[in-house]
Structure formats: C-alpha cells, structure tokens
Amino acid sequence: MWHTVPCLANGYLVTSFLPGRHFSGPDDFSTQLQAWLKVVNRRVHRTLGARPADPWEADRAQMLTPPAVDPPTWWRFSTRMGRDHYVRVDTCDYSVGLAAIGHQVTVLTDSEGVVVLASGGEIVAQHARCWARHQTLT
C-alpha cells in the first residue's frame, strides 16, 4: 500500500478527504481526489455562501489580461559602494571588487544570481543567489 500523501496546503482536504482512505499509488490518489472534488464542489460552502466554483468565474472576469511584453527578469537597484565592499540583496551580503569602493554600481538580481556592474557596464562581481538568511558571500 502506498501511504505517503503529498503535502496538502488546504486543511479541509486533510480533514475531510484523507481520513479512512487508502491509496495504491499516486494515480489512485489523483483519481480518488478528482471524484471527491466533483462531489464537494457542488455543495454550497457555508463560509462562501456559494458553491466553490461559482465565485471563480466572477473572479476570473475581473482579472486583467497579462501585458504583451514579459516583465523584466532582473530586480535592479543602484548604490554607492561602501568601504566594506559588500552589497546587500534581501538579507545576504555579497562581496564586490575593491576597485568599486566609493563608486556607483548597479546590482542586478534574479532567482539564480547576483551581478554587480560598474558605471561603465563591466561586471565587478557575480555570485550565485543565496536563499539562506543573513549570509555573507565572498
């Protein structure tokens, strides 16, 4: 028997769907979940005062269409380099070459990395993005 259940963020699923059920594998879990959702989504939910699917269409009608151009992938800011030669992104400090001290730099960051550019556009630091908190990367 397969008893490992994927992490469910919704407590209602954990307390109403899972108790007493057994799953032979991930496909069986998905099949049982889909059948259960068809039943419970027809019921009027007390908190919503409607079926869960009813407000969905109203919400969808109010949504804006996505822009034609993708948003930039970089988060960008400029700063003057201090004497400690580190820039802070989120809660982490990333080292920058000593030649940049006292100069304006541009910091570009995304989910993968941190790049620091001097005023002329040359790269003065490049690091993999650290998602741990309060780290110093040299």
Looking at this protein, list some descriptive labels.
138 residues, alpha+beta, 2 domains, 4-stranded antiparallel sheet, 3-stranded mixed sheet, 23% helix
Distance between the termini: 49 Å
Q: N-to-C SSE series?
A: HHHEEEEEEE
Molecular shape = elongated
Structural class: alpha+beta
Oligomer: single chain
**Spatial sequence of strands, sheet with the most strands:** 1-4-5-6
Strand elements, count? 7
Helix % is 10-25%
What is the mean pLDDT? Answer: 85
- Domains (count): 2
Low-confidence stretches: 1-9
For the report, how would you describe the main beta sheet? 4 strands, antiparallel
- Alpha carbon gyration radius: 25 Å
Q: What share of residues are in beta strands?
A: 15-25%
- The count of helical stretches stands at 3
Can you give a write-up of this model?
This protein is of the alpha+beta class. It has 2 domains: 52 residues, no CATH class; 63 residues, no CATH class. The protein is 23% helix and 25% strand. The chain is built from 3 helices and 7 strands; from the N terminus they run αααβββββββ. The chain has a 4-stranded antiparallel beta sheet with strand order 1-4-5-6, with no helix packed on it. The protein has a 3-stranded mixed beta sheet with strand order 2-3-7, with no helix packed on it. The longest helix has 15 residues. The two termini are 49 Å apart. 9% of the residues are buried. The N terminus is likely disordered.
Outline the fold blueprint.
Layout: H1 11-17, H2 26-40, H3 53-62, E1 75-80, E2 86-89, E3 92-95, E4 104-109, E5 113-118, E6 123-128, E7 136-137
Parallel strand pairs: 3-7
Antiparallel strand pairs: 1-4, 2-3, 4-5, 5-6
